[in-house]
Structures
1.
Amino acid sequence: MQGQAQSIAGRPVVAGSSSTARLQGRRNAAAAPQATRKVTSMVAAGPRLPKPIGGDSGGDEPLRISLGEGMMGGGFTNVDPESRRVVPEANGRTKLKVVYVVLEAQYQASLSAAVNKINTHRKEVCVELAGYLLEELRDAKNFEKFKKDVASANIFIGSLIFIEELADKIVEAVGPARETLDACLIFPSMPAVMKLNKLGSFSMSQLGGGGKSAIGEFMKNMRQQNDNFEEQLLKLVRTLPKVLKYLPSDKAQDARNYVNSLQYWLGGNDENLENLILNIAQSYSPACKGIDFAPAEPELFPDVGLWHPLAPHMYEDLKEYLNWYDTRKDVKFEKDAPVIGLVLQRSHLVTGDHGHYDGVVAELEARGAKVVPVFAGGLDFSAPVKKFFYDPLGSGRAFVNCVVSLTGFALVGGPARQDAPKAVEALKSLNVPYLVSLPLVFQTTEEWLDSELGVHPVQVALQVALPELDGGIEPIVFAGRDSNTGKSHSLPDRIDSLCSRAINWAKLAKKEKREKKLAITVFSFPPDKGNVGTAAYLNVFGSIYRVLKDLRADGYNVGDLPANEEGLIKSVLTQAEAKFNSADLNIAYKMSVDEYQKLCPYAEALEENWGKPPGNLNSNGQELLIYGKQFGNVFIGVQPTFGYEGDPMRLLFSKSASPHHGFAAYYTYLEKIFGADAVLHFGTHGSLEFMPGKQVGMSGVCYPDSLIGTIPNLYYYAANNPSEATIAKRRSYANTISYLTPPAENAGLYKGLKELKELISSYQSMRDSGRAVAICATIIETARQCNLDKDVKLPEDDEAVKNMSIDERDAIVGGVYRKLMEIESRLLPCGLHVVGCPPTAEEAVATLVNIAELDRPDNNPPIRGLPGLLAAAIGRDIEEIYAGNNKGVLADVDLLQQITEACRSSVREFVKDRTGFDGRIGTNWLAQLSKSLGLSVEPWVRALQGTQFASADRQELITLFTYLEFCLNQVVRDNELGALREALEGKYTEPGPGGDPIRNPGVLPTGKNIHALDPQSIPTAAALKNARVVVDRLLERQKDEMGGKYPESIAVVLWGTDNIKTYGESLAQVCMMVGVKPVPDALGRVNKLEVIPLEELGRPRIDVVVNCSGVFRDLFVNQMNLLDRAIKLAAEQDEPLEMNFVRKHALEQAEELGVSVRDAATRVFSNASGSYSSNVNLAVENSSWSDEQQLQEMYLSRKSFAFNSDRPGAGGEMNRDVFTAAMKTVDVTFQNLDSSEISLTDVSHYFDSDPTKLVAGLRDDGKMPSAFIADTTTANAQVRSLGETVRLDARTKLLNPKWYEGMLSSGYEGVREIQKRLTNTMGWSATSGMVDNWVYDEANATFIEDPEMAQRLMDANPNSFRKLVATFLEANGRGYWDAKPEQLERLRQMYMDVEDKIEGVE
Amino acid sequence: MSLVAASLAAPQAPGLAAQSRRQQQQQPRGRAAALVVRAADAPKLSGGLTTTNSSLLGPKPNLGSPSLGGGPSLGPKLSTGRPQVSLDDVPLKSGVEVDYSKLRDLLKEGKWREAEDETREVLIQAAGKGAVKRGWVYFSEIKFIPVDDMRTLDELWKAASGGKFGYSVQREIWLQNRKQWPKFFKAIDWVVGENNVYRKWPAEFNYSADAPKGHLPLTNALRGTRLFEAIMEHEAYNKTAPTMGGSSGSSSNGASQPGWLNK
């Protein structure tokens, strides 16, 4: 890592040939001493390979370490394949050369052993063996060597080659050599590689036989579905003898040899592999002609079975296994010992590479758990799950209490493609916790330990993301890989952690409910008493109260519960003994420093950042304080904060810190003193999972892993936030349980806006009369009062109106009307959700209307959106109406409004029809009765009758409403409390996608373990199509505003969340900007690129600067790779510079910085590994910043870590020069809004990632870039300026009575939500300057100048109200709000009042 | 916390070891052959074997010391008392008819590396037929190894090293480090570097009298630390009852407390 490894002994260390890095190195030569340690350790302890030390350009830098080489050219693995080579002493024997490429390193050791045996014992022949692991072929040097090896080989063996770019390389190398090879054996792989098979006359494709060709079928199936291929291959092996009868005998012999070879291979041990080589040699090597090695027949092992390191053999029956197991004398188990089911990979067992499995079995048994280890040879592990994990006596119940897969693969499908529904079905029926831990596959132990990324991204995609779709939890790396032998081995501390966690999960099923201890953890940030219990969209204390009542009814001991939720809040927030309202929360436990040090094994490591315990956070100076309150066996605790929010220096410089002692003490308390059986993190989201450490696949020194310790972690998480939920799952081992976001409503109109709507109605009815002019003038005046003048172009004065034509007036009214409707129809979550409380049918209407609006061509059957259907009924095209509306054409605005109203009323009628008398969804028996009598018409037909849309296509409507019916049932069918109860009983939590319920109703019902998506599947074709629309609209708009000129560079922000929800739309936008199209490979994984020719693009390639969030980086490293390749590809197109801005800028920067064009075209940036956000949000939320300069410095220092597809293994490398150079050229900044629920001022993350003012500061001309926000939340996608979007957001939320009254119905939490919106608004002032003065004025009028309102806020949550008042003063102090003296005076007075109230001075 | 013993420990060739053992079953007393195969399997051996000058090791006869016939004084205390005992004075007691003379001779000749291999071999034999067939010892088998055998092994190493090496010496350090493996491995120098990467077996371990206290003999951590723990907890080195079968995993509050918390 360049950023870290800057200097050794004060001298700059230079990264290989990259002079950028050298510059960087010099500039940062004063880097932290830490960096020195890192480099030193890589030299001393890193992989033991010759390091290119000493350099080519000598001079003043005596020590040159190629950091690139530290990761082998930046790849992910750097074991030299040479170390695997076996070279025999021929001693006059015939020498054969065998070359192999495998995915599974476990074959390495047994192949070496097999060849060593041949070389030791055989008199006629000896073998040279050269082996490559698939991933190593990415390295150019390795690939060259590989090609040379293959060219001189006699026999080539390849297995499990399913990564297309590497498959291509193998075809490239082996294809030409196929002629000269004696034999070429390819075991299950991609079709293109399979075709390389060569055994005499045998080749995969020609094997036909009479009529139906088994292999032909097999190949076809494989192309079609790509899954189950290994199972099919095994089936083929079994059926082939029959097929062979139809073949001419010589061909049959060759085919038989192939089948035999496969059996040797699947047998995998050294004897089998020895015989495989000998058999092939005697049959096909001319040099061995006539020799009979008398190889033994393949030794066969069961495909599926049970295994134990001490067992005399494998078992194929659970009863037989248990018969043996229960008579073991070496261990005795308790009668009610937990039983852990283990899922193993057969190839590790047959090749004898099972040291890591032995370790897990030993650890579990040593901890008193029984084990049932099962294996499968194919890729469908659901078979052994179904066969061996159930009660052998046939009760139908699970025999195991917890399943741990040690394969790392999805339960069904392995490395090619998974079948999650099949897996989920098997696991749901078994109904126990399902953990998927993984062995290192592509990296050696040392490489993993050294890596800040953690596990190799390809492995993350295959072995972390895919198992998550099955509901797998806890991706703990339990096994390392030895660089000498390629063998897997236990990572003792990881196995310790995995096994104790698995047993604790299993124990949940064993323990009595009455005895079970649950630690509910709530959050509090920014650190302020008013913020205790923050969570997105959630009424936290209301929900906790509901959960506790539910648990009490279920038999848990929840002690003396307060009478209501206010009582619950008070018990946590206030110190019972304190005389006054104190600043402190209730102290649940005081931990002495001595006890802390004894109980917390990593306490010492925290001292580097925080000094000796107890420190001053969560401490009284002598002891560490645990805040919270215990009720029976339930503890409600407050998670401490990061601790550095208020420290600008740390915010600026800490690339990664560590938790403070108070944080460590909290989790130590939960595990070691309270003795929690499970912890429940309550709501989205806390700090634990964002603590420093590897991104994925943590080691024992990563803080989230240390903190969570051995406690099973349940986590209520908002269903619409799959990206951060995924971080919580991977880094804090959470089993998430999704909760619904609050019911959405249309924002509606209020005050002046409402008046405007009425005026427009009058105008329409009197448009031709003499009064039209006057009404138009009033409209203009009112619009101005409502501050709409920035959104709609209004004439200067009344005189101007008088002279207008009717068309001109229409245009103005149309513009205002359009804006009003935009505000009115905006969806906003109203109030806060309470867990387990589904919306009423009425509340679901707005959501359903939005669901009904979208076309769903991919649905089966395809669904057309309601607006489109209605438009068609009157002979119009909805896209055309949208376009007219967007331009403010009055007739179209009005028509769209009528369509919208018709949509709403028909959906409302439909819902009414489905609603029981209690307002909940049920069967309305009256409706049912009349329907059965044939008396009624469909409700939506009723709604449309008498309107111009009555003739809408009935069949299409039925399809649509059938779908809506399904959605409606899903919305109200939540399992939020049920899933928690079940998880606490040690049951499986069903997985489900996270995302926007409107786009993807599959998110519903809630109460599921959230997963993201297969990261390799995006961007989808649909996303690409939508991205094109947005990019075109963006460029058009900018072009309009810039006098016909295209922007040269766009700074884009990429988030994980929106890419998950939209299947990669914003990712695709970047590709579209530079004019490169991502293309899927044969297995549907998007990893190829095509340049769109300029003629087709019809415009210049626009340069980009891609700012990825830390979450995006964690989830989509492969996509960062794709983007970097796409941008560099664009930069390398030899095209006129005025048509290729990427190239234009890259050439300039290459010159300026003295680097290659390719390096200069570095455009994909994010945080350093393990660090998130620019910290601008923390600084703003805590008011801990001096000036904007400081915020911009934070952004620069934290977000300028470049991703480089030429060195993917290096992760993010500090590359501030290139970042700055690229940002200087930016004309436009751009972000996406992905759902109506998370808008600009709802979360602090949007302004945190906004670089608008930063760009202005960097640009040579100091010009403020245009800032745009794409809004694809509705069918009619919009690109708005940032200013427009901020105004829209203020109007629909902060200033909208419907919104704030909804919030205030949740009291304490509601005040905080209001205050949060204001703080976030000020954040926008700080980063973009796009907040109008009137927004602050209006907010002040609403919340401060209205005495009644002010009093309500103060009473409900004085701490948050104080912050609200302070934020107004701060906005004025920083020059964002030009307030009148009396406004300020009032605020100051109010601040003192609330201070008094908080201090208890009444 | 900052320590992690991540990689593996010693023998990397159980397959070969098992193979050699199979041969050995055919030709009784064929252990030498087994060692030959192993050595051949490790051609990349460097350093480590160089310091074989036994005069450096100082196993000077100390005839004045008390008999080491397995008396109660052989607890952990002994390694601190450290009376110099001659290798020849160590009685080669075995409750399971394992012959320890070869180990003694290798130690006497200062062949640390070979003695190290032999130790693993005799431990497998002492652990019983299952272990021999498997080629490695499962942790639960250790408790069946008689106290005599475990003491003999320990005494031989201590005698040869002047009290520097041996299981009881390792146990003492292990306890000092509150049974925390990462710290313990660091203390006996089995890990290197900032990330505390396990030394590569066999080449990177120090087979000499210069090695840090407790560095030898090696115990394989390829399969986790339970085997090593079982050795450390063997009653030969521990007067209190051995605590196996989930001792450290279960405590009153159901949370997994490290065992030392209860002490």
2.
Amino acid sequence: RICVITLAEAHPLLQTGKTITSINYQISANCSRLQNKVSGKSKRGAQFLTELAPLCRISSSDGEEYTIYSCIRGRLIEVNENILSNPAILQEKPSTEGYIAVVLPKFEESKSITQGLLTQKEYEEVLLKR
Amino acid sequence: MSSLTEKDRAIVQLLLNTGTCPRCILRFCCVGSQTVYRHPYKDLMKDLKDFLKNNQEKEDMVCFDIVDPPCKRIRLEDTEEGPDDANHNGTLQQIPSVNDENTAMENSAVEVCNVCLGILQEFCEVDFVKKVCQKVNSADYQFTSFVFSVSLPPQLSVRERAAWLLVKQEMGKLGLSLAKDDIVPLKEAYKWIIHPQLSEELGVPADGKALFEVSVVFAHPETDEECHFLATACPDCFKPAKNKQSVFTRMAVIKALEKIKEEDFLKHFPCPPCSPKNLCVALEIQCNNGAVFVAGRYNKYSRNLPQTPWIIDGERKLESSVEELISEHLMAAFKADSFNFSSSGREDVDVRTLGNGRPFAIELVNPRRIHFTAEEMKGLQQTINNSSDKIKVRDLQLVTREAIGRMKEGEEEKTKTYSALIWTDRAIQKEDIAFLDDIKELKLDQKTPLRVLHRRPLAVRCRIIHTMKSEYIDEHHFRLHLKTQAGTYIKEFVHGDFGRTKPNVGSLLN
């Protein structure tokens, strides 16, 4: 099952007042998410992501830097290059045009991954408790 | 024998002594007349011997040395002659097979030919023909002509080569040359003999282009290992392939024979070849009819029917499918082994196919019945239509293979017309969507939609929307009619697919 990674509702970057200054897909000296190239139906050549693998780093005008993590184990299919040219959509439409990346987990792990996620309701409850 | 001449004498003698059958002898003497080969075996044998005997009266006998190979055996039933390389008298009486021809030949069973291993002997006889025809008739095929294909064991090529080298050497002594291509090929001679017999028995002509194929596979396990020496001599010809049981396929053997040097060959293989104890066996006699193609158009009225069976992990997700509903009856009527369903495009499970219907074609593999009149096809069509209310077919007809190519061509070049019911979050007025009608030849860039990304490669597709026509319904709904290039993802054009289809209706409305 295809997964689209986006900023969560409660992410600081989506709170009012924050302006994004830069988005960087170069997460280490050797690794840029922009260089990810997949080919074929089975998406060979894709960078493999673990839950804690960083996707990108986003800097805001107040000096903060946020690392966005994959949270899903699987092959990185694509990162959204539109937010590089137009960072505004990341904040305006975080759940649609402003997505971060698309990840394809292994078929066998699909079910266990889904079970490890929160539903919208469960998420809201978590937020309430904060 | 009129086809044989003086220069053939030595060859005939040589080959006869070394255990070669009359028909193979004729082949190596380059006798090209088909009818000669069809004479009965006994007659041919007699004729050859008569031919040799005539030499007795001649003064200058050909005094020949028979090549003495390591493993040669001559059947010396009626004569006290031991070694055969000392016939300096030259009198042919000393050759046992000619000596007391009747008894010698009648007493001993017909020796299995050391070159054709019985193919041009036993397997030209009426019994075998009858056996083949019985198999054909019991298989109950409909056919108007046949092609008879024969698969020979690879060691025959090796033996043929050995025999050729032997004959070539002998001819060399007479100052004559013999090219490999001059010799009548074994398969060709075999077909000369057996085609008329099969044709007579089956009542239809033999035709190289026929769709109905009768194939026989011959094997000779006794000599299977004869090819193995080629592997040591030409190892690169014999790469083990996953599918094949034996590395020594006919093609590989032939290739190796072309590469190997004469000297190396003679080192490893007896020349002339040894006489085998047993005949070849006909391993299998199989019948196969060329595929037949049925085409038509189908309509789908169910929103719960996939085009092809939908099975995940061995479990069927939805009952039946378009292809099964159509092919079930065709398979029964044509009595085929299997089918291949193809169509000019397809539609989703939850989509109906209306109008004239979608063109489809079914390849029926190895059908037993191939002749159907227009009436019968209409009847078949009726049967299919009566059997289900989920689909209907029309224009059911027999077509050629080329038709499928043309049907598939259309898939790319077509223009598709769609009607989409669109919901908008934002309230809209009539004027807001009117501009869509004026947009012509809109170019889209569509990344592989997320909804299919798990089973399709990631790519960007350029597609064109030729025209659009909008129909206002209310503040949050309108209908959009579109004419697009084949392969355009309509849903993604409407909702934008996370911005991965550009432009899209959303972006156009803003």
3.
Amino acid sequence: MASNAAVPFWRAAGMTYITYSNICANLVRNCLKEPYKTEALTREKVHFAVSKWVDSKPQKSSMIRIFLDLGFLRCAIRSDTEEE
Amino acid sequence: MLRRATGLLARPILSCRARPFSTDLPAPQTTDSSFVEAWKKVIPNMEPPKTPLSFMQPRPPTPSSIPSKLTVSFVLPYASELSNKEVDMVIIPSTTGQMGVLPGHVSTIAELKPGLLSVHEGNEVTKYFVSSGFAFIHANSFADIIAVEAVPLDQIDASLVQKGLAEFTQKLSSASTDLEKAEAQIGVDVHSALNAALTG
């Protein structure tokens, strides 16, 4: 059966609500005045650590990465050197 | 497949009752009285330990007459702007338009679009620009507004807004894939809402 609700344009383009909401928040943060803008940009960063697991053991020590989500232009900045 | 639909529809309606709203249920007990009595018999000198439920303040059930004030909690992921503040009215930027919420408003869940949120208390109005979020209005005149980013209007830089608007309008006309078009459209929406909030 065809969908009967009118989907918002971003969902029709394949975007989820969380992505949409984060893009909106980032755009608003980029339009702030100076002291507020720098504090806001620190909020935008997400710190996460990734490690591969084999045989229920993490393979390598997890590396801390900082993830700036500028919409779909995602830049992952690695804070220490990688051994890949 | 469709012939059996009417048969399938009839039975569930009879067997399931509508679940009551959370505001219509009686408030849960904050302490377990039998535990407290047993504790006091064994250790009369120490206070019984508090459970998480005793720290929670239950919300009042739906009153029979409309209360005079609306209790608003406006929270962001990193801060709580308003926490159970009693106000006269809030105007929220829902996707269906600016919605004014007064005490006694019907229970609603509203998705918010980028826009202006204003809190009216007596003669003062506090305005915030909200990036997106949700507003839950309960039957007992409690409103919970959650947003990812909300800034007072004086923190917004008008020149950056204009630049952003021009940039995204240009991106919208030059976008090729659906995704790029959607992103550019979001940019245009947010910046025009910012513009309208600053000038209006």
4.
Amino acid sequence: MSNAEDNKPSHDQLSSQVFLDLVDSVIADVASECHRVARLGLDRDLEVVEEELRLSVEARAKVADPSNNLETNTKYVVDIFGQSHPPVATEVFNCMNCGRQIVAGRFAPHLERCMGKGRKARAKATRSTTASQNRNSRRNTSDNNQLASGPPGFEENVRRT
Amino acid sequence: MARSVKHSVNRPPTPDEDVRDSPERDELTLGEIINIKLVESGEKENLMELVRDRLVESGWKDEMRIACREHVKKKGRKDVTVDELIRVITPKGRASVPDAVKEELLDRIHNFIRSAAL
């Protein structure tokens, strides 16, 4: 065979070339397959790692920015145990003064009225409270106006004296 | 006496069958000729199947896929291209073919070349 080339490739070289060619084909197949899996997101393990990474970045951003929390979670802040606390305490118990069932969140205003602290808040009077205050004031002051004045003005009278 | 064949149709003579569509035989390298013979005889396909089977059995393919995944993890799966993956794993791939597999393949190819009488 007349060949223009100076160095005729040996059989070994030719075989090697063919072999490399075959291996390159298989490599291309593997690369193509992996590329497809990667782009389609078929590799669940990879996805999990990506998802965790994303969540941790988000969590870090949230921690660094406290104003975020106040705006979004005003009503139901979740503590580290996962419990949520409504802004107004909802537990109900009995008032030790008047014996009524009071919602804990409304206890302070109730107590104001119940113990006779606020002026205008004394619109409703129970017999027991007025009776005890009547007794108290009767002892302290002379009984001029107490019996005559009704409950509305009663407190003011007591205060004045 | 001149033989005159009466043609019903006037047409130029059919071109010689020796002239093929492919470039002149002399210009094809030996490697190319061998490749053509491999394909035409079906031996190329047999060899491909053999290579694939052997490389899968030996765990070579799994190693390559792990290498690909590592690269994808680094680059991010949306950015990666096939060419890039090929470029990344080819050196390692070529180097890590088990010797036994290589020997077997080279043997078969050798035999083919010899039997093709080139």
